[in-house]
Amino acid sequence: MTAIFELLKGKGSEKQPVIVQGITGKFGTRHTKLMMEYGTNIAAGVTPGKGGQKFEDSVPIYETVKEAVHATGAKISIMFVPAKFFLGAAKEALEAGIKLLVAIPEHVPVQDAMKTIEIAEQKNAIVIGPNTPGVMIPGLIKIGIMPASPFKFGNTVVLSKSGTLLYEISNNLSNSGFGQCITIGVGGDPINGTRLVDAFDMVKDYPDLDGIVIVGEIGGDAEEVLAQKIIDENFKKPVVAYIAGRKAPKEKRMGHAGAIVMGNYGSAESKISMFSKANIPVAKRPIEVPILLARKMEKK
Amino acid sequence: MRLLEYQAKELFKEYKIKIPKSIASKDIEKGRADAKEIGYPFVIKAQVPVGGRGKAGGIQKCHNEDEFELKYPQILNMTIKGEKTRAILLEKMLEYEKEIYLSLFLNRSKRCYTIISSAEGGVEIESVKDQVIQEVGLGDVTEKVAEDVAKKIGLAKNSIPYFVDILQKLSKLTVEKEAELTEINPLVILKDGSMMALDGKLMTDDNSNFRHKELAKYQEKTELEKKAEESGFSLVELDGNIAVIGNGAGLVMSTLDMLTDNGGKAACFLDVGGTATTESVYEALTLISKMKNVKAVLVNLYGGIVKTTIVASAFLKAYDDKIIILPVFARLMGAESDKSKDMLKDSETQVSPSIEDAINKVVMEVNK
Q: What CATH number is associated with residue B155?
């Protein structure tokens, strides 16, 4: 079992404690409530200036991540801080001993993301995001802003650059009987704390794994690198993919900071052709994903 | 933000990277004055935020006034790969020995900056075989690394110090302005071995704009794009007649792909952000109403946390307020979708059970 599962599941029967940075903001409040409803053990919140108060009369709020970690023993933190303050807040969390940092904020500058990742590497911590919907093990723990309804527990994995496409495609999979043992949103930014290829490494040895779905989009070469890795490792379990942005104009940012084609770098053609080399079928529409996965499983 | 050539060159100048004498203008009056200032012969260069303008006729030599009067308006009115010419750069013609290539580029999967250089310049770098690639972490380039690259591309000894100097300046610019790409193609070698940037391309990190007020003057946004940004939306204007709205960049791209596959032409890409609310959808429709050429609207929303009835009430309000009179074809996924369908049944909005169905209907509508 790799680090991500250990961190999310914990060892005993106790649910893993999670800290929320920016728990009192509008967005943070809303999603903290939804995570608690889902059953995630929100053990503490952090909002500078509001230490000593309680969130929803139950969750203690601290001034610093260090205090929150000290009080709860949490190794996981989810961040709802404005992009401008991201680097400071991420640094604080990693230095306080957080080992899994789920970075929700969008619009984080590339340089700040790169600096955060540098610290995370020194501290041997995992950063998911920035600009991620989060990570979840359906039925067990939800650390993120995704709705609960699309996800069902099962033995497939969904790794996605996009948020709403992660929901859409997981929903299609769940409806076709393909539940998920974990879903990871890697984020739509140019620089990801956990790249598609890192996410693949985290899940590939999951014992009951039946198949992996990769939801990519134009921009960068994360899909190409992952396809090459799947070829190099001779990974045999079924993998299928979907790529958004085939018809997007070049040199335009399509909503996500990372969704931009420069020349051939980041083009859908390049990704689809690498997936084809790796024998990974690419769906033309989100609804086709479960069909391709079922076909791939039959062939095995 | 993607800077135009003349804007990139302004930054080059600020960082003391040598460029030929050049002046930018947006009308022929100013252009005539610039022509006198530069002196014939010079090159007329279309300023467009897209590559491949040379092949499209956007760069032309100009030897005299007659040629100028003919070519200036022609290039100013040009549209290259869907992009209108934003300005004209007149640039002194230069004699040089050789063209090479140099860029600093954010390698996303390696999460570091990369120097790419080649002894072959002036062509698209992807078609060049002998590229020297050197990773440089967060973008700082030491003298030694720069010298190394110079030697690897086989520069003559007298040119090496010039190359090292330019590469280090380019690195400083890249890091300080938080660029994802800075490219000089071609970088030309003059007779005395010194170098000049004949072209410049710069792509900055939009998410760092708040730290770079000095770059705000280069922001070329349409009124609609500005409005979209104020609402927290992402908008890309396109040249078709079906407005595409959705929540989440991936979902909207996916909708655009499927629409195009089915023969539809998108008028825009409008992402209202991951979470759709009554207000955001109402605002999106308001934006669309200001666009020309739109004949119908295609909406793809994955509700998730938000009830689709909340979104449906935004449509009703938009019709009530006469914000929008266009037919809307929507797919609303999420809680209470039956109820929202009921709410909209007497309006100009048709709710489809699937995005495929909504696309078929919207394409039929605009082809009526």
A: 3.30.470.20
